[in-house]
Write a structure and sequence with these properties.
single chain; 5-stranded mixed barrel; NA-bd_OB-fold; ARFGAP/RecO
Length: about 240
């Protein structure tokens, strides 16, 4: 039996029967793995607590990664990065719910992707330790596209349009799937920055919604099977 110990980020947890959970994790060493946690909802004195498996919780797992099916089991779990503000802030909780849905949809490979893992891990720690986070999800998604292979080509950033389908700047005409004007200016303000510069961006609620819709459309065009997150409406309500 193959036993591994790895850091992991919880992507989703679905109730299975009355007492168990099926938990999808993005592990540092083996990519996406899905685990059956039997009886976790039944016993208060059990080995594992349901709180370990909240969206985007960072844990250290020892797992049996051998199974005749697709579900594996966990031997040990501990939280390695306890959040101090994410679970007490409605805004941060909503962002986490939204991003966990996006990541569960996007990350499918059962293989190591250490660069992507470190990006997600570091971004979540930043979210937990900062208060100005209204634009966090926008920058998170845009910078996530770098690890997925379709970050915007900014070599001709001075041009008057951006082609969502080609991922590059062009001279704006009347083509479909090209953003220009005010929408383009809003989009460009996110390019090339990191989270520490996020407070330099001042979007009102309408602008924030516009840019989020642009980024979602960009992902839909570049990721086969990408689904618009169900939690998008909740996110937009919180930020309105």
């Amino acid at each position: 039996m193959s036993v591994i110990t790895s850091k992991a980020i919880v992507l989703s947890a679905i109730k299975y029967g009355d007492t168990s959970l099926i938990v999808k994790c993005f592990t540092e060493l083996e990519g996406v793995k899905t685990y059956l946690i039997k009886g976790v909802l039944k016993s208060k004195k059990g080995k594992f607590k349901p709180s370990y498996f909240q969206p985007l919780t960072q844990i250290l797992i020892t797992a049996n990664n051998y199974s005749k099916g697709t579900l594996f089991t966990l031997k040990e779990v501990q939280v390695v990065q306890p959040y101090t503000t994410i679970h007490t802030s409605v805004v941060k909780q909503t962002i986490v719910m939204f991003l966990s849905e996006v990541l569960a949809n996007i990350i499918q490979e059962e293989e190591e992707n250490s660069a992507l893992y470190v990006y997600v891990e570091t971004a979540l720690i930043w979210l937990d330790t900062h208060s100005e986070v209204a634009n966090f999800h926008l920058l998170f998604l845009l910078n996530l596209s770098r690890f997925l292979g379709f970050y915007p080509d900014v070599s001709e950033k001075e041009k008057s349009g951006f082609s969502l389908i080609d991922g590059c700047f062009i001279d704006a005409g009347y083509e479909k799937l090209v953003i220009s004007g005010e929408k383009l200016l809003l989009f460009k303000s996110l390019l090339g920055i990191n989270f520490d510069a996020i407070n330099t961006i001042s979007y009102n609620k309408q602008e924030r919604q516009v840019i989020l819709q642009v980024i979602i459309q960009y992902f839909e065009l570049h990721l086969e099977g990408f689904r618009k997150p169900k939690s998008l409406a909740v996110l937009e309500t919180v930020f309105s």
